[in-house]
Amino acid sequence: MKELLLRRKGKFIQYLFATFLFVGDHFAQMGIFVLLLRAIEKGDSKHFGYVVAITVLFIFYAPINFLISRLLRIRYMRDTILDVRKQAFDKIINMPFKKFSARSKEIYISNLINDINTFENKFFISLLNYLINIIMFLLSILILAFLDYKLAIAMALQAVILTALATVFVKKASALETELSECNENFTTDMANTFNGMEILKLNHIEEKFKDKSMESIKRAESKKFAAAFFTDMQKHVIRIISFASSVAVMIYLAYSFLNGLSLSMGGFLFQLCSSSGNYLINAFPMRNQMKASMTIYRKIAEPDENSEEQDKGSEEFCFHKEITLKAVSFSYGKKEILKDAAFTIEKGKKYLIKGPSGAGKSTLINLLAKVTEDYRGEISADGIDFRRINEKSFHSKVAFVYQDVFLFEDTIRNNIALYQEVPEEKIQFAVKVCGLEGICGDKKAGIDEMLSENGKNLSGGQRQRISIARAIAKDAEILFVDEGTSSLNEELGREIERVFLNLENTVIAISHRYYEGVTDRYDYVLEIKNGRVHQFPAQEYFHEVVVC
């Protein structure tokens, strides 16, 4: 947090200066009050006129002072919150894929919106008020020490008691903020699920059930928000009771001092200093607890995890010149064994089709080969280098994925192929040609620079799938992983897309339930999974037996 606040030292100094402007304004008000009391005591109209003139000048000064202070604070807060948003986004974007995919994407959206808004609203407001009140308290004690050391000691003892109370409160405040953050995450996830599944809800007339579920989620979030606000107010009230008792004691002390010759103006000033010092602490300590609670949120969403180096734990570069070999590879979900002693070889440039009944372990096998899953037994190696020693970034830079559900950015066809990388024009044009996108680009007014609508809704399913394949070709991916890449297409389009896969020079590892006569049997090998065992067959032999049967 210290690094975050001091990242812009010049603006942070301006922020502190803005804080002192508030303090100066407050003590100026107290000074005018004392001058007015003194003028009344003197009964001198000329002196009273001077005090009125000073008061009028202050009335003009106060709004200017506020405006300057506000501008200085907003500039610093704006830039610092941008830093927090960037840190939070960097933390998510650089997260290892396995760790990222373990949580719902709506949780990350909640972190970037709800948590950062909470941090902005509570941390900076709390920081400003805490600084203002602590500075004013210290100045009040310092002034009291010169005017009446007994009152200064009494106010200092009060501060010790209130500090001890605040320490007791801070853990609960942090816990409540963490719970509120989790409720916001759950609420965002529930809302996303409801809106993403709206078509199903409407067609099955179950909107009311999801409405009730959503309302429960809202109630939980609002309940936690109320608990956090109530606890903050409770802290203030406890401290206020102590402060009130202190003010009564000060009044008794000053009443005794009046009998011993204390002037009205000095008595009024001392009372203001003492009562204000209590109010400063009433405001300061809950703010301090809110700051600490907000820092818990900051660490959660923006500070790197201790295991952030996980994504680069492999030290070896991924090299695939010859083959990927599996030896005695087994994998289990809990106690259920999915794969048993799998042993086969993936040769560079060959095409492999993974077959098997639903739930046999096809996706598990492709995840093992794609380094998505690493908690397996046995050995997987690429040209003799153990998969676990291979750097994840190096691996991902040389492989590409084609899924049944293609995601396209709301951007140009070019950027959806190049994925915002500096890709030579000849590679993009080659990818367009190989994937049969020339006709699509030719039909568009802006050609390859035509803007796509949300997730490519202005394209057909086959066109969207071709763009996803073009990505792999433009990327120069050595291995193309295809998970049911044609299952959502009609037979004609599916046949065309599968033909594109098989015409590539890349190594292709695909999962598909479909069989396109004259096309699917062009795979080099079939990896069939039965009862956890992986059996490898030449494709022509496998499909010939299937057809004969």
Automatic annotation (TrEMBL):
GO terms for cellular component: plasma membrane. Keywords: ATP-binding, Membrane, Nucleotide-binding, Transmembrane, Transmembrane helix. GO terms for molecular function: ABC-type transporter activity; ATP binding; ATP hydrolysis activity; ATPase-coupled lipid transmembrane transporter activity. The chain crosses the membrane at residues 12-36, 48-68, 127-146, 152-170, 238-256. It comes from the Bacteria. Residues 324-548 form the ABC transporter domain. It is found in: Cell membrane. It is a multi-pass membrane protein. InterPro entries: AAA+_ATPase, ABC1_TM_dom, ABC1_TM_sf, ABC_transporter-like_ATP-bd, ABC_transporter-like_CS, P-loop_NTPase, Type_1_exporter. Coiled coil: none annotated. Its main location: membrane. This is ABC-type multidrug transport system, ATPase and permease component. It comes from Anaerocolumna jejuensis DSM 15929.
